[in-house]
Amino acid sequence: MNSIPGAFPDADGSFAGSWLRRRRTQALLTHERLATLTGVEARVIRDIESGRISRPPAAVIRLLLDTLETTDQTVITTMRR
Fold this sequence. Notes:
Elements: H1 17-26, H2 31-38, H3 42-50, H4 58-80
């Protein structure tokens, strides 16, 4: 089981690529922009979303989660202005 808040495993125990895709698109980020913000290659992000990488390293998950949570807050703040 993945113990990182906000992340959840698919039925097979892998990191949920659909969750990552949903959060990324909600934050209005392209693969390339998310890659720039996190330092994780865009190809790796695409591979996680597609399921080609089913168990990314914890450090990659943490970078993605931290960046998406921060980006989400930025989007909310921007929308309130």
